[in-house]
């Protein structure tokens, strides 16, 4: 099997704050790191980018999003993405690892922000013109501080990034059903479930396994996931399986039979039916597309 998508790490960028943070304007970022980012890849850090000019598309975990002025994308570690952008593209990008936030804000978590608390949440945000200036200014101040040599530089970068995420959260919040009341405990349970699924999805496909691992009933776990995401635990397990299937079909030379076996299914026809029912293409058709 040939290599799947490369994983970039923050050490590949000229990062500050003990190697935990990086900022740049998007044009210089692309010109400097084009070889790293022009093809599908993953990374081990959080990435937040805003486009202020230009067009194109940004594909994240096999979903395509329009790039235009006011587009913001917020990616968590492990997501697969790449973009295709016009020559007149402009904007800003910041990247940091979890440690950057944990060290500076010991009483809070990066998972508290609505765009980061679950992989299920939409990674895109399109900012209206009347809000755009304030958000762009925050990105610009972060970049300027990152490039400065002033006293308390790290403190200001941390504070500005926190303010940026707060402002983006306020704009993002309407994307979440206003009738939903997400308790902190429910979000913690969702994150725990996602970590367990990520660890065991190849061998464990039943909701009962994950509920037992979390010491709660299957019914209660489903109620939490339904309240947060409008889905079931089984939906999350299957979506994780299918995401890995898409990654392998586009990033490896596995046969469909090998893929089926690797993902923990005995019947290739059954797996192919699930794949097509959910994604609209057979595994073979998807592989040809990519």
From TrEMBL:
InterPro entries the UniProt entry points to: AraC-bd, Homeodomain-like_sf, HTH-like, HTH_AraC, RmlC-like_jellyroll, Tscrpt_reg_AraC-type_HTH
Record keywords: DNA-binding, Transcription, Transcription regulation
Entry-linked Pfam families: AraC_binding, HTH_18
Residue ranges constituting the HTH araC/xylS-type domain according to the UniProt record: 191-289
Protein name as annotated: AraC family transcriptional regulator
